[in-house]
Amino acid sequence: MDEIQNILDRTAKSDALIARPADDTAIERCDRALHEIGLLPLPEGYARFLKSANGYAWNGFEFFGTDRCTEDASDYVLRDIVEFNAYIRERTSFADEVLVLGRFDEDIYIYDSTENSYKAIDRLTSMDADAFDSFEDLLTSTVGLYVEYDEDEDTDEDEG
After folding, report:
1. Please, which residues have CB within 8 angstroms of residue 116's CB and are 6 or more apart in sequence?
2. CB-based contacts of 79, cutoff 8 Å, min separation 6
3. pTM
């Protein structure tokens, strides 16, 4: 969880949308709403993430929270996890054991309860790109890599 907080802290400096942390009540409400549309509850690792950032968007990365978030300055809207999962199921054939957590470009980030793993899958082909043992691993292997690249770019510009 320390690495997640590190990523949140570092991207907050570059205009990330980081919604205030969810409490247990918000997570329970979300789990009930997911159940009502026939989906599994939030995986434990993702629920812990939501207690740090109940919705997150930075440089094209989006991770959905228990509530819809709007950034006033730009009118940017980050959907909530229930709304997005209902939307995506209208357009795809995702199994009920799969919960979509976020997206970036052509990738969708999911939790697959049949394999108890987090995955990055190609949105166009539905093929697995990478699998991760924890949400922290997924976040550090995706957003974390871009944070490093972004900071390296800033350092190069400062030196030039």
Report:
1. none
2. 64, 68, 87
3. 0.90
